[in-house]
Each structure stands twice: as C-alpha cells, then as structure tokens.
Write a structure and sequence with these properties.
It comes from Streptomyces mooreae. The structure is a single chain. This protein is an alpha+beta fold. The protein contains 11 helices and 17 strands. It has helices spanning 2-13, 19-31, 67-74, 115-135, 141-145, 153-161, 209-228, 233-248, 323-326, 340-347, 356-367, and strands at 35-41, 47-51, 60-62, 78-81, 87-96, 99-109, 166-168, 172-179, 187-193, 197-205, 254-262, 267-273, 277-282, 285-288, 308-311, 317-321, 376-383.
C-alpha cells in the first residue's frame, strides 16, 4: 500500500509531459525496475508507438504478433524473459473504462517478479492511463507520440471532436474506429452515458476535406448542446437540424443515426436521418435493422423527427456502419453489404466490442477494388443488460 501511495503521489506531482519520467523514477525505487517504457496505440489502432518525455519517440511495434500487442488484445499482462539476463519484462495494458490507450512495459529482476508485484503493476498501469487523460488537456506529448504520420487538418479536427474509441461498464460495451485514420474528414461518432441512459450518434457530413469536417463539427456540437439541455431525442435532432440549416441554408446536410437506450430496460429510441446503417447480431442471426428514413440534418428548414422504438435483449450486438463501409465495391463490382458485411460480423463475433471495428475495417480494406479507402466508420455496441460481464 505504501508503494501504491508513492506511485500516486509521484504521478500527481509530475508535470503533464513528464509522467513517464516520474513513473520510471518511482518504479526504480519502489520495485527495483531496471527499465520502464510506455507504448501508445496509434490513431489507426494497428501500431504501438514509444512515448518519451518529448513525444518524439520513434520506436514502433505492430499490435499483431508482438508480445506487447498480444497483451493489448487480451487485456491481460504478458511476461517476456529478457534474453541473456536474469530479468523479466511485464507488458501491462493501459486501459481506461475500456479505452485501450497502450502498454506499460516494466523490466524487473527475476526475483522481484512475483504475482503480488504484477498485481501492483496492473494498478499502476490503470493509474497511469487516467493520469494521461488528464495530462492531455495541457500537453501535446501523448497525442504527438500516437502519430505514425502527420494528420490532415480535417482529420485533426475530427479526432479532437471524438470521445474515446471504446467504453465498457457492467451494462454495455462500445467500440468505434474511423478510416483512413490519418485523413478522415466527414464521418464521426459520439456518445454519452449517465445513470439512466446511453445516447449516441453516427454522423456523416457531406463533402470532403475541411468543409466536411467543419460541417460535422457543427452538427455534433449542436447535438451535444441539445442533449445537455435535457431535451428528448426528437428535439435533439430538430435543434441540430435547425443549426445546420441556419448556417448552410440547405446547401449542405449531415446524415445521422441517433439512438437513446434506456439502461434499465434496453428500450431503444432511434432516429434514422440519413445514410448510416444499423445491423444486429442476435445469437447466430445477422440482419439489417431497417428504420423509417427521415431527412438528413440541415436539408430543409424546420424538419420534424419521430423516434422509432425497439428493445435490446442481453447478448445483442449492434453494428453501425457508414456508406464508406457498406457501399465499398469488390473488384467484381459487388457491394460490401451484399454478403461480406454479414460474414465479417459473424467472423468477429467472439471479439470484444473494442476490437470489432478495426477488424471489420481491415476486411473492408482487403475487399475494396479502389486503391484508397473512402471515409469509413464502424461502431460496435454489445448489450449486456443484466449487469453481468
């Protein structure tokens, strides 16, 4: 307990950019660590990037096949014996409420690598993740370290608008991913959860580049503003529609799928205002959930929206995809949604929600006929419902 307190005190006293340095110092003293390294998941979710105090770490590891990547995927610590030495490297997931931030690697002498110490280090990794989220308000070090290449300005705006890429509690689990991660412009997802309900949206602003990103920013912030005012789902859509129309006068619109889930019952209100699609896997059955098509946000003045209702049952998995996924064409001209999407949903059925979007997007990339991938978004929701993981 004294060692935990030392770590907490050191991290909270550290400058935002110096968390890794402070952690290295305290772990050296408290646990006799001989090396400490932080690896952060990149924007594409395929690479782990070394993070030092400058944010210019150049070392990268694939999440596929490396011990660190396996620890990230399993969300369990992994041990690796150091070659030609009496030391063990412990690869520990750095995760906050389901959001997989990266891996903390701590090298310890063999005699110091006890199960009790590993449990202590898991606590340290969790604490580090939360401190990173706080520190990111005040430094660019961690965001800079995540970048394999430079983000376009439109992508920068989109990533700053997003919530975490994953979330999990006793009632549900969420995961989402955008591609191309370093050049996305119009697609977006958003969510918010409180004691009684989960509200989230999948949006796709028309156009390309900065214009699409600006349009999506306006729509998402208008939806947030309405949601935080405490109004119902229909009014959230109507107020966001009004905000977009007032600015663009019908010259631009935002396709949106908006949902509100009552956490106690699984009852869903949904508004389909555009192109994002919703698919459901229940047991081994996969089907598209067709909703009444309503007008995209901003297309006409004072549009009215009517929620539809359905109910989730424990074990349901919902998959939300943008047109950059389901409209993708194979070399033979077949749309991805015709057969391949259902196969991909089946193939990823055993993966946690946080990993599903990345795997489906990898499948889309292999499927497509074009050399580059259009804006593409996948969001996965697992409904647990009864409060048991």
């Amino acid at each position: 307990m004294t060692q935990r307190l030392e770590v907490e005190t050191a991290l909270r006293a550290a400058a935002p950019h110096a968390l890794v340095d402070a952690l290295r110092d305290v772990l050296t003293t408290a646990y006799h660590a001989t090396a400490v390294r932080l690896l952060l998941t990149d924007y594409g979710g395929t690479v782990l990037r070394s993070c030092d105090g400058s944010g210019h770490g150049e070392d990268s590891l694939s999440v596929f096949g490396s011990p660190e990547g396996r620890a990230l995927g399993s969300q369990e610590p992994r041990e690796q014996q150091v070659a030609h030495g009496d030391a063990v490297e412990h690869h520990l997931p750095v995760t906050v409420r389901g959001d997989r931030i990266g891996i903390l690697t701590v090298r310890l002498p063999d005699e110091g690598s006890t199960p009790e110490v590993v449990d202590e280090l898991r606590y340290v990794a969790d604490l580090l993740g939360r401190e990173i989220l706080v520190a990111e308000r005040d430094t660019d070090v961690y965001q800079r370290a995540r970048r394999v290449s430079r983000l376009t300005l439109a992508a920068e705006m989109q990533w700053q608008l997003l919530p975490a890429r994953a979330y999990r509690d006793a009632r549900f689990a969420l995961g989402a991913q955008l591609e191309p991660a370093y050049a996305v412009h119009g697609d977006n997802f958003d969510w918010s959860v409180d004691a009684d309900e989960l509200t989230f949206s999948v949006t796709n602003g028309m156009g390309e580049g900065i214009e699409a990103s600006l349009l999506t920013n306006l729509a998402v912030n208008a939806l947030r503003n309405a949601r935080r005012a405490g109004v119902g789902l229909a009014d959230q859509a109507a107020l966001a529609d009004q905000a977009v129309h007032d600015h663009y006068r019908g010259a631009a619109h935002v396709s949106t799928l908006l949902l509100r889930i009552e956490l106690a019952t699984g009852r869903v209100e949904a508004i389909d205002a555009g192109s994002p699609q919703m698919w459901r896997m229940r047991g081994k059955s996969v089907e598209r959930i067709d909703l009444d098509a309503q007008l995209p946000l901003g297309m006409f003045e004072e549009s009215h929206y009517t929620p539809q209702e359905f109910t989730l049952v424990p074990g349901d998995r919902l998959i939300f995809v943008s047109d950059g996924v389901y409209e993708t064409l194979s070399p033979r001209g077949e749309k991805y949604a015709e057969q391949a999407l259902s196969r991909a949903i089946h193939a990823t059925s055993l993966l946690p929600a946080a990993m599903v979007p990345r795997e489906i997007l990898r499948d889309v990339a292999d499927y497509r006929a074009a050399e580059s991938l259009d804006d593409a978004l996948v969001l996965c929701l697992d409904w647990i419902g009864d409060g048991h993981c």
